[in-house]
Amino acid sequence: DLSTTIAGRTFSNCMMNAAGVRCADDNDLNQIIASPAGAYVTKSATPNVREGNPEPRMKSLPGGCINSMGLPNHGLDYYLNFVLQDQAKRPDKTNLLSVAGTTLEDNLTMLHKVEDSEFNGFVELNLSCPNVPGKPQVGYDFDRVHEILVQVFDFYDKPLGVKLPPYFDLVHFDQIAKILNEFPLTFVNSINSVGNGLVIDPNAERVAIKPKGGFGGIGGTFIKPTALANVRGLSLRLKPEIAIIGTGGVMNGTDVFEHILCGASMVQVGTQFGFEGTRIFKRLSKELSAIMDAKGYQSIADFKGKLKTF
Ligand code: DHB
């Protein structure tokens, strides 16, 4: 049984896509709906359509990738319309609508629209996009995170979670968890890409992508230890009402298993979903089920957060 529960909502499978990869239009989203994934999250939306950064803006690497897409998306109305129509067809399913304003005002405008709509799923408020030139990753400015959440929860009453950047210092885990625990968050999603890496082609003596002089978000196998540290670090610090979605470095069923051991209730797949498409959810489900069978685990709850230490 690979099902999982967050805030009383049951998901048939604990795996889903990560925002940004193959989830930008109806066609992408309908393919996820047709797969064994337990839910989908839509490409992070801004209030209006955005073209994003100039190409090349994504480069695949062995086991990973670098990207600086710059929030190309169809605008909030497009994604809100999609989730509302889907919700009318499948009222028993919960899905995630990702929102990533480049300003506080944009986030509040979008969340008011969602609040005033019939949407009954989860909003994933993205506080960690590294790829808009001149816009810092909000998740690294703790006072700003606090300010945003004060303003959001002043009016927003539906289930909402935040997508966080990776943290690399235990004091930062303490600081962000203290802030997040002040609010009625449904979940935190950890981690977004490891921001502002640099991939170069030594032959051409050139950077791999065009935006920002080649700097971009890193995903894939390289980031799994950082992702697990963040899931574990937050799991140990957040109040139990806040569920954790684990994202980062998931290529196989063992990676999913490890995220759940660290405390994830649900696991998102970005880079490798980009490589494989929706068939990945069947493969990962088989691989996780095999691990659980071998260990005698019948449900996610049997091992969620039960990582052992010396
Ligand atoms: C983009 C990248 C991200 O990591 C993110 O969280 C949002 C948007 C992008 O470049 O489009």
Structure description:
The protein is 32% helix and 19% strand. The strands form four sheets. A seven-stranded parallel beta sheet has the order 3-15-14-9-8-7-6. The radius of gyration is 18 Å and the shape is globular. Helix 4 runs parallel beside helix 5 and helix 7 packs across helix 9. It starts with a strand and ends in a 15-residue tail after the last helix. It has nine helices and 15 strands. It has one domain (4-52, 72-195, 219-302): TIM Barrel (Alpha-Beta Barrel), CATH 3.20.20. The longest helix is centred in the C-terminal third of the chain and has 16 residues, at 280-295. The mean pLDDT is 98. With 310 residues, the chain is α/β, with parallel strands linked by helices. Strand 6, helix 3 and strand 7 (122-126) form a beta-alpha-beta unit. Residues 20, 44, 52, 67-71, 100, 126, 128-131, 192-193, 217 line the site of 3,4-dihydroxybenzoic acid (DHB).
Model regions low in confidence, pLDDT < 50 over at least 5 residues = none
Radius of gyration: 18 Å
CATH architecture level-2 label? Alpha-Beta Barrel
Shape: globular
CATH level 1 class label: Alpha Beta
What key phrases describe this protein's structure?
310 residues; alpha/beta; TIM Barrel; 32% helix; globular; binds 3,4-dihydroxybenzoic acid
